[in-house]
Please model this.
Amino acid sequence: MIPNSSCDPTLGYAYSKQFDDRSLRGSDAGNVSASTSSPTQLYYSAAGQLTGLSVDIYGDVEQTPFKMGYFDQIGESHYRISVGLRSDTTGVCQPDAAP
Model:
């Protein structure tokens, strides 16, 4: 799994399993996101606790849940649904925050 260099203050640091034709990629760790071959991202706090997950959808999504805010539009025909696993997200980006 490869970390994304920035921290989402409500979800944490995104990690995504990225593949090329043969192996796990690690050279572009500063800009990692989900892909069609690996659409899931896991989010962790700076202290290492699991804090959320997301799944990318490529293609169309149902308009009713999209209009209700369940999906974020990432690009044309590219959407993401995210689920936070903490009720209190204070400090997910701070390494010295309590778990």
